[in-house]
Amino acid sequence: MPEPTRGTETGAAGITVAADYFQSYSVVGLLAVVGVLFVAVAFGAGRLLRPVVPTPEKLLTYECGVDPVGEGWAHTQVRYYVYAFLYVIFAVDSIFLFPWATVFAAPGYGATTLVEMFIFLGFLAVGLLYAYKKGVLTWT
Question: Which residue, among 103, 138, 101, has the nearest Cα to 121 in the 3D structure?
Fold first, then answer.
């Protein structure tokens, strides 16, 4: 019978039990504790070393460089969200197109993936045509 490797024991039934199993988790736990301590020390040092001089300008709410004047309620046009939504749709579609292009060259997947991708692109074209007909893509 071969000798068991270091850190393992072989029982009577021939099952190998790893003795160092929990030691590997202790290393991960130690690194997590060191990481948390590093962040805590950095924040504590920042709090102790920074100058604290509150002024009225520092206590104002910062809103992208615009002075907070008037109400906190602002109207935003919906078209910005529509453009962002269209961007997200086409960004996700490009994520789906890349794996298809890599699988398309593999033997045995050619015709099936080609038909599936044209169906997928057809749905995208219908959505884009709908957005165009609704006037979403006109800026004025």
Answer: 101
